[in-house]
Amino acid sequence: xxxxxxxxxxxRRPGAFRYxxxxxxxxxxxxxxxxxxxxxxxxxxxxxxxxxxxxxxxxDIALRVREFVTLLTGKQTIYQCIxxxxxxxxxxxxPLEPQAYKDEYHRRLLxxxxxxxxxxxxxxxxxxxxxxxxxxxLLEMLRRHGVTPYLASGTDEVYVxxxxxxxxxxxxxxxxxxxxxxxxxxxSKKMVIERIIRENRLEGAELVGFGDGYVEIENVRxxxxxxxxxxSNEAARCGIDDWKRERLIRAGADLIIPDYREIAPLExxxxxxxx
Length: 275
Hints:
The chain is of the alpha/beta class. It is 47% helix and 12% strand. It is built from 10 helices and 7 strands. Strands 1-7-6-5-2-3-4 form a 7-stranded mixed beta sheet, sandwiched between helices. The radius of gyration is 19 Å and the shape is globular. The two termini are 21 Å apart.
């Protein structure tokens, strides 16, 4: 009988892993849970201002926004803002600079998560409650098998470093944490993966990746690595998010898991029986 905590998708056999690359938001961290509920309505309102939006319903525009936000999830936030500017132009509007949209989105998002950050800082919130369940067990499992982890996030690096520290996950990465830069062309998850492979002379099969977004799964597979899709239900902290699952399968995930609660079957799938 299939294990509900682990779905085999491609049937590819894992390699002898030496390195891992992990996404942050939705893969390890839940600090920013609900970010889509900030971005999609904000972008929808901006797109509705364009002259060509007059003949469209707000629901149709929201669907249009959700589609490109979803497609670009996992890339740096600026790419979603660039796409918003392009959509406004296509509807006859005059957009702001993409960075202006990013700054305003961050302002709104930080308002939403301010209580979470303050709670982590003053100790009134247990960090474990703002992680994908089993995160610490996952990181310890990788350490136990001698796998060196890297963290690569589309969120600005300054925020990733702070939030990783507040959640207590930074100790497993020892400086190997990378995030978005103001000069956005100087960073991408693909660049991090290429650097890991180049500097450590890896074969693709020696790399395992974990992520809940299309981009990181696609990048890991393109590099020849083994991709674990984390279809985490961020709001409930339990079960599979079917929307994520379908997207991760399309991206090429080899395995689908909801979280890391059931670490034993995941460990066996990655490292073999008796691991």
